[in-house]
């Protein structure tokens, strides 16, 4: 009996005896499959699903890790069948095998411009491996990447709408790169569907991950963070005390190395944010025109163009702090628009989005600015308050559970005991 | 915290798209397109398989989507009026037209103290005759020249005391619970 046959018998026996932990260790520690890759397809057919899920997964993982996959479409079909017929309990012993396979498939589909065909597969793989809704896997970033390439966002939004509270270590193989990419791609998806507040939140998460060195992902995230913040400025000014002077500023808990890297590598974007304060539309547009090539290279030109509209809206919003009434013509002149009709279009947009409160009197061509009419006494406001209170209570409950898990973790207890020991030594 | 993005119907349609594999029918895409338009979101034409992009009804839907995105309402109504939609699509298109008209009427009420019937036609695509009918239905006044409508806002319902009491009780109970846990 050859070494391969012996090995296959051994793992099949372990699988039949439900010794999945031993089987997982055996698959991790052995390279018999790698040495006999030419026979893998034949061996795979002997592993019935779902009984021998781990054995089949080991074989499929070997094919994925080979220098090249001979028949990729056939392999993709095999994986789709595996995902639908395997045992989810057995997969949990080697989740990083599924993740590795997903990375290889994603990369191959991306290079072949077939992003769309991988989305259902990754969607089902995620459902198979994740243990609870708020758990992060490296497969998330693969799915989001393909969704962005295919411009099909709903499968990603299904996961993005649930906040992450836990990371699946994937047997120690989870890399921080996947955490950065989760929030980076997630921010891009939210920017595509014009949920800019969520996009800004996601980009900020990328920037504020504790770091001793700066990742390129953080640099790109900062560029988009600034642009999204500029697009959102009119909404931010309405709801918070955010001013245009704080546009380029990062949260105070951002790592020092990240702040320094951004200062030296993203000067164009920081300067763009500072120009927002000048209230000079012509100067702003000239700056964008001068650096158009760079924005195009960074693939941010679309967002940059949207900041021009935001600039105009912000200028109009600033006028509401000075005037109670103003004519449409005067408003158009002050904001440097072409005509009163264009000013009216901007006003309508802003009134519709709740960015200003105003009434247009077309009879005499005047605009009257009001204060916020919300008296917080309508049913909708009560429901909103109730919703927000429930969200706070859920977040508080989750934080308490995280705190409890942290306090009971072995690493934390060892560290605090070591610290206490050092302190008592110093006192002596 | 995350907020909901998709309606239940959209989730159901997306689920069908995910599980259909390569056998996706053009009608499924049309339903998704309409759902996007009803939710006032932009449908991405590039997501559609090329063989569906030649469908004339779909091309018309795409033009309607473009008109809505550019807020070119005259074009929006013209595109609907000048095309014979299939029986599966016509009720959804009618629903879309009603939603857009209602949304614009609400915007006129919120944004204008006075607006000419000509402006209602040029900005919102609603003909002068239809605008005058809405004027009467929604209780708007007209000025003495009969050229300008004077929109008035619809009333906002105020909460009853019992709702506020329930909310206050819930918040107080939660705060009491948190402070007890802290003391323990």
TrEMBL record, chain A:
It is found in: Cytoplasm; Nucleus. Residues 195-374 form the PCI domain. It comes from the Eukaryota. One of its GO terms (biological process) is ubiquitin-dependent protein catabolic process. InterPro entries: COP9_N, CSN3, PCI_dom, WH_DNA-bd_sf. SMART domains: PINT (SM00088). GO terms for cellular component: COP9 signalosome; cytoplasm. SUPFAM superfamilies: Winged helix' DNA-binding domain. Keywords: Cytoplasm, Nucleus, Signalosome. Belongs to the CSN3 family. This is COP9 signalosome complex subunit 3. It comes from Didymodactylos carnosus.
UniProtKB/TrEMBL annotation, chain B:
It is found in: Cytoplasm; Nucleus. The keyword NAD does not apply. The keyword Nucleus applies. Residues 6-165 form the PCI domain. Keywords: Cytoplasm, Nucleus, Signalosome. PROSITE patterns: PCI (PS50250). GO terms for cellular component: COP9 signalosome; cytoplasm. One of its GO terms (biological process) is COP9 signalosome assembly. InterPro entries: COP9_CSN8 (IPR033205), CSN8_PSD8_EIF3K (IPR033464), PCI_dom (IPR000717). It comes from the Eukaryota. PANTHER family: COP9 SIGNALOSOME COMPLEX SUBUNIT 8. Belongs to the CSN8 family. This is COP9 signalosome complex subunit 8. The lineage of its organism: Eukaryota, Metazoa, Spiralia, Gnathifera, Rotifera.
């Amino acid at each position: 009996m050859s070494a391969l046959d012996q090995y296959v018998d051994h793992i099949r026996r372990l699988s039949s005896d439900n010794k999945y932990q031993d089987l997982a260790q055996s698959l991790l520690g052995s390279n018999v499959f790698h040495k006999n890759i030419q026979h893998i397809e034949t061996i795979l057919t002997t592993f019935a699903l779902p009984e021998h899920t781990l054995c089949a997964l080991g074989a499929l993982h070997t094919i994925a890790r080979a220098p090249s996959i001979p028949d990729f479409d056939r392999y993709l079909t095999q994986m789709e069948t595996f995902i639908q017929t395997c045992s989810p309990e057995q997969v949990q012993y080697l989740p990083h095998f599924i993740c590795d396979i997903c990375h290889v498939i994603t990369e191959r589909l991306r290079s072949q411009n077939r992003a769309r065909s991988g989305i259902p597969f990754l969607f089902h793989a995620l459902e198979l491996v994740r243990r609870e809704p708020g758990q992060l896997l490296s497969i998330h970033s693969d799915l989001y990447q393909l969704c962005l390439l295919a411009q099909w966002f709903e499968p990603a939004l299904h996961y993005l709408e649930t906040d992450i509270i836990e990371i699946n270590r994937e047997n120690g193989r989870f890399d921080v790169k996947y955490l950065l990419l989760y929030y980076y791609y997630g921010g891009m998806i939210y920017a595509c569907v014009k949920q800019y507040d969520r996009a800004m939140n996601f980009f900020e998460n990328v920037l504020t991950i504790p770091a001793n060195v700066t990742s390129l992902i953080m640099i790109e995230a900062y560029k988009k963070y600034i642009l999204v913040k500029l697009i959102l400025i009119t909404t931010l000014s309405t709801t918070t005390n955010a001013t245009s002077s704080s546009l380029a500023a990062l949260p105070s808990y951002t790592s020092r190395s990240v702040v320094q890297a951004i200062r030296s590598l993203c000067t164009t974007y920081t300067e763009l944010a500072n120009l927002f304060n000048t209230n000079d539309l012509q100067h702003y547009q000239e700056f964008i025109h001068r650096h158009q090539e760079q924005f195009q290279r960074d693939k941010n030109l679309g967002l940059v163009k949207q900041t021009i509209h935001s600039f105009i809206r912000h200028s109009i919003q600033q006028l509401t702090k000075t005037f109670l009434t103003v004519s449409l013509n005067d408003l158009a002149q002050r904001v440097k628009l072409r005509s009163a009709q264009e000013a009216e279009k901007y006003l309508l947009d802003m009134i519709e989005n709740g960015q200003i409160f105003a009434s247009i009197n077309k009879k005499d061509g005047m605009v009257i600015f009001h204060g916020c009419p919300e008296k917080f006494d309508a049913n909708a406001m009560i429901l909103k308050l109730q919703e927000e209170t429930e969200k706070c209570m859920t977040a508080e409950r989750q934080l308490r559970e995280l705190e409890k898990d942290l306090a009971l973790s072995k690493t934390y207890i060892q560290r605090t005991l070591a610290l206490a020991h050092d302190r008592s030594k110093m006192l002596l | 915290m995350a907020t909901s993005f998709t309606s239940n119907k959209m989730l159901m349609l997306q689920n069908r798209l995910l599980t259909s594999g390569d056998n996706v029918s053009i009608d499924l895409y049309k339903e998704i397109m309409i759902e996007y338009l009803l939710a006032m979101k932009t449908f991405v034409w590039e997501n559609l398989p090329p063989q569906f992009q030649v469908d004339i009804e779909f091309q018309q839907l795409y033009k309607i989507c473009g008109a809505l995105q550019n807020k070119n309402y005259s074009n929006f109504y013209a595109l609907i009026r000048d095309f014979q939609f299939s029986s599966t699509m016509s009720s959804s298109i009618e629903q879309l037209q009603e939603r857009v008209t209602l949304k614009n009427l609400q915007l006129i009420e919120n944004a204008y103290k006075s607006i000419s019937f000509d402006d209602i036609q040029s900005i919102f695509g609603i003909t002068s005759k239809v605008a005058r009918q809405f004027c009467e239905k929604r209780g708007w006044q007209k000025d003495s020249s009969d050229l300008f409508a004077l929109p008035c806002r619809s009333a906002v319902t105020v909460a009853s005391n019992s709702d506020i009491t329930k909310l206050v009780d819930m918040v107080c109970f939660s705060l009491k619970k948190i402070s007890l846990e802290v003391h323990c």
